[in-house]
Amino acid sequence: GLRPGPDRAGGGGGEGKPLSLLLPELYPQERPVELWANGELLCTLYCTPQDLEDLALGHLMGRGLLDPGSPPAVAAVPGDPWRLETTLSLPGKPGRDPALSRWTTTLSQVVELAEPAMEHTPLRKKGGVHAAALGWEGGFLVREDVARHNAVDKVVGAGIIQGGDFSAAAL
Backbone dihedral region of 64: left (phi > 0), alpha (psi from -120 to 50 degrees) or beta? Predict the structure, then answer.
């Protein structure tokens, strides 16, 4: 078994369990979430269980499995683990080259956009999370997760849902 450590509880019935499970109001949660496409398991992601549709779409786009102009519906099925299910009409090709952005900005503009957006990051107050932001002229999104790559997938997926122009955006 796991020994108690700085992030684990010992004694009192919580022997070896992560503190995030024992004190969910204090620590960000991390759960396994399976991503299924066309009836096949693509992967299991360990993530903060918020913004799961964003996570699925961003992950699929990162793998080159979807066109951001016509995202598929994603169904979240609660359980242990959670399942995200979708149907892909394009076979896709992993490793697709990302779009190059034409958008230019200054550091002061990024700070000006980011400060109000950070007020909408509830997990930030708990600590132990990463945030990723996606900005374009007229739009700015922030998503959080315990894993940096999931925060990026979530904000990319949110950009897909919002119809963001990735050729004129900055991550």
Answer: left
Rounded Cα distance between 155 and 157, Å, is: 5
Asked whether the CA dihedral 47, 49, 50, 56 is positive or negative, the reply is positive
User: Which residues does residue 139 pair with via DSSP β-bridges, in sequence order?
Assistant: 136
Q: Is the full-model pTM beyond 0.85?
A: no
Measured distance CA(150)–CA(155) in Å, rounded: 9
Other CB atoms within 10 A of residue 23 CB: 11
- Per-residue pLDDT tens over the stretch 5-14: 444 444 445 5
> What is the distance between the alpha carbons of residues 156 and 3, in angstroms, rounded to a whole number?
38
